[in-house]
């Protein structure tokens, strides 16, 4: 609309230069007064499509294999058996005072190392020699061996898993995913005019951040960014999934998720206001739909969401982001051991 006058196809209808609009239109309040909608001919499903991010991108997978009760029980088991081993070693020491040996030495720190070593599936240089002590030690190592095996198997599965935490527009706004929009006239019209706080924030923070070029992209480029990951692309799913089927590998189709952005009525064919063809066209389009011709053509033209057929055969590479928590523990351990070594040298040289 320019200077309160309609241009383009709607202008031709209002000036009575055309009887029927050749392109289906979305419903808007300002159009209702000047044209008339008669029939829906092309069901349009525009959605934000993205590959579900890896689980390790949204949470620490190293705490997920066990729930809280199992973690508490495991810590309690290690502490309880550690206390038993300590008192057994102490009893062995007093029982055989006449022949002390490193095996019989009682030291809380050494017992703590035995327990921690068992957690990490490592041996110890001090082991009880009595029957009760050996039974307790065997119980400790066997129990933690089963827990360690279960934990390791769950970690492998979790590192290959994707997250389902992004289900709403608010989740998408708070996520690390970038957002692009299919470069069409109606997207450029509707996105900047969104009044909802969440949609407005998505446009201002992720689609068109201040000082940056708005992220309106061609369809092929947007779909390729979806494939790369951590990117959501708002597109017409009918034509977008056709490109997805051509570009994506089979296992990459398994993690596709959708979130509706706009809630629109499907576009309708428009005619002149108070046109004498109104009833005739409505009946004609209804017959085309009821006869199955229109649904058939729609199914031939628009591609449905690809089916996941090879989820079990897919393999996801593990990167540094996935192992971030483990890397932090390793670095902290190395730094701590270095500092303790320096302190020991200083104390020894005094």
TrEMBL record:
Residue runs in coiled coils: none
Transmembrane domains' residue ranges: 70-89, 138-159, 324-347
Subcellular location: Cell membrane
Entry keywords, A to Z: Cell membrane, Glycoprotein, Membrane, Receptor, Transmembrane, Transmembrane helix
Single GO MF descriptor: ligand-gated monoatomic ion channel activity
Gene Ontology biological process terms in this record: detection of stimulus involved in sensory perception
Superkingdom of origin organism: Eukaryota
GO cellular component: plasma membrane
Main location: membrane
Membrane topology term: Multi-pass membrane protein
Signal sequence extent: none
Start and end residues of each Ionotropic glutamate receptor C-terminal domain: 69-317
One matching Pfam family: Lig_chan
Family of this protein: Belongs to the glutamate-gated ion channel (TC 1.A.10.1) family.
Protein name per the record: Ionotropic receptor 6
Taxon lineage: Eukaryota, Metazoa, Ecdysozoa, Arthropoda, Hexapoda
